[in-house]
Amino acid sequence: MLGWRFSCVLVQAAVWLLLSKGERMCPTSCRCEGKLVYCESGIFQDIPQNITTGCQGLSLRYNNLQVLMPYQFAHLNQLVWLYLDHNSINAVDVLAFHGVRRLKELIVSSNKIAHLHNNTFSAIPNLRNLDLSYNKIQSLQPGHLFGLRKLQNLHLRSNGLKQIVVRTFLECRSLEFLDLGYNQLRSLSRTTFLGLFRLKELHLEHNQFSRINFYIFPRLTNLQALYLQWNRIRAVSQGVPWTWFKLQKLDLSGNEIQTLDPLVFQSLPNLQTLNLESNKLRSVPVEAVAAWTSVTTIGLAGNAWDCRPSICPLMAWLRTLRDAKDISMICSSPKSTQGERVVDVVGNYSNCVNVISSLPPSPDPSTTSFPEIPFEHMAFHKIIAGTVALFLSVSLILLVIYVSWRHYPNTMRQLQQHSVKHKRRKKGRKQEQDLNSQLQEYYLSYHSNSETMDSLVNESRPCTCTISGSIECEV
């Protein structure tokens, strides 16, 4: 009986030793740091063997994985993050992620995935970050993201997306960041973003939108940043009056916008950063400028600005900004001001300041008008012509001096010596004249006789003394 108990103890100890040894094993060509395993050597075509069952982080980046099979990671049920980017994955089985319920971060970017099954990610409901960017997914269906109610960040950049079916993101109630940039989207419906009540940042840049109606965004009440740059947008409108209180950043640069709808900006009372660079704007309505009450940073360069006096309200508003003024704005018209900076041209309007100060905060477009102030073209051209002539004259003189110095050095040296000698002679003559004048003051010529001396002694008549020491008396 005692021997049997002793044998059981030995077996248990052996099993414990084997398990502890297995826990400490690390796959060949991998690097292990505690419960984190990094297999990024580029030789793996499948999941490496002997990965510890307590692994919490697994990186298989930069390998040659091609297919994710059913239950492929089920034995790693403690995984918290899994990196599979930069492989050759072209197919993902609907059961591939079953068994890793604790997974919170999944990176599958830079692969060749063209199709996703419905409920592919439903087995990982605790997922917080999902990166599917740089794949070949051309369409999103509601079932693709089913079950991801805790998802906070979703990356779908550069997939060639052409269509997003309505209510695709309905399950993503916790989503805060959504990147749909660098795709081929042409339109969005009002129910596209249904359910994204917590979304804070939305990227739609580098798509193929031609018009944007803010009517499709009213449910994004918590959105703070909207990126629409480098599309083909010609107009931005506001279909239904509503107020977007939390939007702080709007990027519309690199589009084809020609006019701004004041209603759009009147619905954005807390907008702080506005980028309108590289569009086709010629002017900004006074009502739109008046609506920029909270804007602190703005980009206006790269537009075709009309530099007539009607641009004065915009420039007056720019002077109120705390940040550096946008001095890179260039005039496109009228023809006499083409290529010049708007700041410089507006400075030549003598009455522009009066026009600006007389404008009301929110003027009525039917009553707002700007007097035509004649632009003094002739005076401006005369100043330029005079400056150019002076510059050419100075340049010619310097050129003559330089050529003379290079080709006739002896002549120049002789001229310098002659000039120095002439100055010395002139200085010597001046010194001699000064010395003679001083000596003459100290010399006195007079004839002494007794009568004169007697008169000086006996007579008491008024006398005056000169600076040279001689005495003059009245006779």
Secondary-structure map with pairings?
Layout (H helix, E strand, L loop, with lengths): L1 H22 L7 E3 L2 E3 L18 E3 L7 E2 L12 E3 L7 E2 L12 E3 L21 E3 L7 E2 L12 E3 L7 E2 L12 E3 L21 E3 L7 E3 L11 E3 L7 E3 L11 E3 L10 H5 L6 E3 L10 H6 L5 E3 L5 E2 L5 H7 L12 E3 L8 H6 L4 H6 L19 H31 L1 H34 L7 H9 L4 E3 L5 E3 L2
Pfam families: LRR_8
Protein name: Leucine rich repeat transmembrane neuronal 4
Organism: Hippocampus comes (Tiger tail seahorse)
Protein described:
The protein folds into 3 domains: 28-208, Leucine-rich repeat, LRR (right-handed beta-alpha superhelix); 212-371, Ribonuclease Inhibitor (Leucine-rich repeat, LRR (right-handed beta-alpha superhelix), Alpha-Beta Horseshoe), CATH 3.80.10; 377-420 and 437-473, no CATH class. It is 27% helix and 13% strand. The chain has 9 helices and 23 strands. The protein has helices at residues 2-23, 262-266, 286-291, 312-318, 342-347, 352-357, 377-407, 409-442, 450-458, and strands at residues 31-33, 36-38, 57-59, 67-68, 81-83, 91-92, 105-107, 129-131, 139-140, 153-155, 163-164, 177-179, 201-203, 211-213, 225-227, 235-237, 249-251, 273-275, 297-299, 305-306, 331-333, 463-465, 471-473. It has a 13-stranded mixed sheet, with no helix packed on it. A two-stranded parallel ribbon has the order 4-6. Strand 17 (249-251), helix 2 and strand 18 form a beta-alpha-beta unit. Mean pLDDT is 82; it is low at 13-23, 362-378 and 442-475.
